[in-house]
Amino acid sequence: MRLRWALAALLLVAGCSAPAAQTQAPQALPAPDAPLPLGTNGAAAPKLDWAPCHGSFQCATAPVPLSYREPDGAKLNLSVIRMPATDPAHRVGSLMINFGGPGTDGVGELMRFGPRYPEQLRAKFDLVSFDPRGIGGSAPVQCPGTPPAAGSPLRDSAAFWTASAAVGKACAAGTGAELSHLSTANVARDMDLLRQALGEQQLNFYGYSYGTYLGGTYANLFPGKLRAMVLDGTLDLVANSTGQPGQQQKPVDVRADVATAQQQELEAFFAACNAAGPGKCAFAGGDLKQKFAAVFDRLTHGPVGGMTVASLMETIDRALYQSSRWPRLAKTLAALVPSSPVSPVPVLDPRVPTHSPGFLAVQCLDSELPQDTAKYAQLAAEEAKRQPYFGVAPVFSMAQCVGWPARDEDRYLGPWNRPRQHPILILANRNDPVTPLANAQATARELGDGHVVVVDGAGHTTLDVPSTAASAAMARYFTDLTVPPEGTVYPPEVRPFP
C-alpha cells in the first residue's frame, strides 16, 4: 500500500517539472593510449618554510598557479601541515593524506587523526596534508547571500530548482575567476608541486572517500610519479566522472547505486539488532522489515513528535555512516512503532541532501551531470520503485550542480588505467552507505591494478570502522610495498551491539 501511493505521487508530478534546461552532451573519454593531458606545465615547486604549529605539527604556505595554463600567472596559497616521522633515521619519505569531501580541510583532519595512525607508519613517514584549493585556509570559495533550500522537487519543482541554482550564482558572484579552476585535476596538479616541494621523487598517497577520486586522478595524470597509493572508501571513478555508456543521463549517486548500498546496510542493521536481542537493541523482536515499514508508513501519514519521513531518513543516513550509532537508531525506531496500522498518504517531501559551497565548487566541475530538469521526476519514480526507502534522495543529491555557472576546461575524465609501477591498494568496508563495496570493485577494474581487501564492518571508510589488522596491512604496504592477498577480510575493532 505504501509503495503504490508513493509511486502514484511521484508519477503524478513527473509531468509537472520546471522547464527543461539545455542538455549537455557527455564528453567522450580519451583512448587508453591517449597522450597525457596537461600536467604542471613547468610551474615552479613552491618553497615550504616550515614553522612549528599546533604542538608537534609543522605548518607552511604553498603558492601554486591559479591556472596551470599560466604557470607563471596568478597564484593562490595552499595551507599545508605535516607531522614529522618519529624515527627520522629510518624514514622512508612523506605520505600525503586527503580526508575526503570534497570540502574537507586537510589541516584540521591531520591534527585530529594523525596520532591515531599505526606507530610503524608514523615512525617512517612524515604525514602531510593540506587544505585543497577553494577549501579552508586555501583561498576558500566565497558564496555570500546564499538562500536556504526551498521547495520540494516533487511538489513544488519550480521553486526547488530555482533555490538549487542559487548557490552557484552566489559562488560565482563572490568567488569570481577562481570558481573555474577548482576541479580535482587541479588539486592533483597542486599535489605534484607539493611532492616536488617535499623533495620526493615519487608520491605516497592515502585518500579517503572523495580523496580516492583525487588519488585516481593523480595516478593517471602522473602515473610515473606514483610510488604507493591506498584508496579507502572508494568512489567508482567512471560513475563519478561521466558514467558508463547508458548511464550518462543519470546523476552521480544513481550511477554509483548508493541506494542499494544503504538498503543493504539497513538490512545488516536489522540482522545485527535481532541477533543482539531486546536487551541490547531496543528495536529487536519480530520481523524488523515489517516493523520498519510500519514506521515509515506512519510517518507518511504525518509527523510524529516532530519526526517526518525526511528527518527519519536523514537520521538513518547519519547512523549508517558509523555502526556505533546503531543502538541510538534502534531506540529512535522503537519509539515510532505504531500501535495499530495506519493508511499511508503520498510521500511528496522526500529527503533531499544539500551540500556546502566547498563541496559543490569541486563536484560540480568534476562530474558530467544531466541538465534537463524535466527528466528528474520520472527518474525519481523509477528509483522509488526500485528502492522504496532510499531511491529518491540520490536522484536529487546533485541538484545544486544543475546549471552550475563555471566549468574547468582542465578537469580529468579518464582514461583511468595508465600503466604504473606498483599496484594500488583499495580498502573497502563490507557495508558502506556512501562508497559501496561494488564501487571499490569497479574502480579496481577501471584502474587495472587495483587490489581490493575488505573490512568486515559497516560504516564509511576505516576512519569510522577502525581495524587494527587492516591498518597494519596498510602500513606494511606503504613501508615495503607488500600487498596483502586479494580479497583478504579483516575484522573491525568494534561491533555495533557489544
Question: Would you mind describing this structure in some detail?
Answer:
The protein has a ten-stranded mixed sheet with strand order 1-2-3-5-4-6-7-8-9-10, with helices on both faces. A hairpin with a 3-residue loop joins strand 1 and strand 2. It contains 18 helices and ten strands. The protein is globular, with a radius of gyration of 23 Å. It is 38% helix and 13% strand. It has a domain of 229 residues: 3-Layer(aba) Sandwich (Rossmann fold), CATH 3.40.50. The N terminus is likely disordered. The chain has 498 residues and is of the alpha/beta class. 51% of the residues are buried.
Question: Layout of SSEs?
Answer:
Layout lengths: L1 H12 L37 E3 L3 E9 L9 E9 L9 E6 L7 H8 L5 H6 E6 L26 H19 L8 H14 L5 E6 L1 H12 L4 E7 L4 H5 L10 H4 L2 H19 L11 H13 L8 H12 L5 H9 L22 H10 L9 H11 L5 H5 L27 E8 L5 H11 L2 E9 L2 H4 L3 H13 L8 E2 L8
Parallel strand pairs: 4-5, 4-6, 6-7, 7-8, 8-9, 9-10
Antiparallel strand pairs: 1-2, 2-3, 3-5
Helix pairs in contact: 1-14, 5-6
What is the overall pLDDT average? 92
Spatial extent as radius of gyration: 23 Å
Question: Which quaternary structure do these chains form?
Answer: single chain
CATH C-level name of the domain at 51-141 and 182-241 and 413-490: Alpha Beta
Biggest pleated-sheet summary: 10 strands, mixed
- Fill in the CATH topology of the domain at 51-141 and 182-241 and 413-490: Rossmann fold
Instruction: Summarize the helix and strand pattern as letters.
Output: HEEEEHHEHHEHEHHHHHHHHHEHEHHE
Write a concise synopsis of the structure shown:
This protein is an alpha/beta fold and 498 residues long. Helix content is 38%, strand content 13%. The longest helix has 19 residues, at 157-175.
